[in-house]
Amino acid sequence: MPHIHLEYSANIENLDTKPILLALNQALVDGAYVSSANDVKSRAICQQEYVIGLNDPTQAYIHAKVSLLTGRSLDVQQQISKLLLKTLEQQLQKYAQFNLQICVEILEMQKNTYSKKVVTLNEQIGSVFI
């Protein structure tokens, strides 16, 4: 935990999302917001169908949805939001040809309904068909 879903408008052509995702993960690790780097899972999704305002092609967006387990204070959630917004700003400076809307949204996942299991390679080997 946490999960980061990074959505962005398709008019940001050739957006290399891997370094952006890595920078977001690193920011959480460096800020000591996670106990292990492997707890952070991030992914990027390009939105082909979108409209910003009245469809002005100079408008673009990137929106990070950050899902955290319940229990973090509002102050910590705000710190994470600001940290990731700053990280995104730094990573996206070269896309100044757009009016780029950068957003971070913090979402809470209920601890009592979230399930997770880490399956090691040794556990899987018996059920893998080759």
Automatic annotation (TrEMBL):
Q: Which UniProt keywords apply?
A: Isomerase
What domain of life? Bacteria
Task: Please give the name of this protein.
Answer: 5-carboxymethyl-2-hydroxymuconate isomerase
SUPFAM superfamilies xref list: Tautomerase/MIF
Tell me one Pfam family matched here: CHMI
Supply the Gene3D superfamilies for this chain. Answer: Macrophage Migration Inhibitory Factor
- Keyword Isomerase present in the record's keywords: the answer is yes
What GO annotations for molecular function exist for this entry? 5-carboxymethyl-2-hydroxymuconate delta-isomerase activity
Species for this entry: Acinetobacter albensis
